[in-house]
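pls ignore typos typing on phone
cobalt (II) ion + seq
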Amino acid sequence: MQKIHLSHCLATGLLFSVATMAQAACDFELEVNDTMQFQEKEMVTEKSCEAINVTIKHTGTQPKNLMGHNWTLTKTGDFQPVATEGMTAGLENDYIKPGDTRVIAFTKTVGAGETASTSFSPDALEAGGDYTFFCSFPGHWGSMNGKFIVN
Ligand code: CO
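k done
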């Protein structure tokens, strides 16, 4: 009887963790700094989220014209052309070609001490689709990118 009771407690504990993770998968806070990288190489979200919220926070010391970062999401197949074409769009457009419909979501570009957020519907995403998040600041996308996974 005691064993059964113990496994029941473990199962309850596991269910609780899964529920906590599912909730967290809709809201992300990413810290960026004076290096050209995201600490996250992968972000995992859920198609069932009401909205997906992404905040980036620049904890470095460099201003955004020197070490600016944003968070941009596209299909993986669109990521490199969007990044390349966005280079000439300038900081005022967050290095994204205005009206680029390949961009699913993006934040403003941040420098030292700044934060920026975006909130978007998962309706635009397919579960199991191939998506990449990246920073579109010129020269950053090569190292500042990761997989965006939708369950
Ligand atoms: Co950057």
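The first strand starts at residue 27 and ends at 32. The chain is about 25% helix and 25% strand. more later
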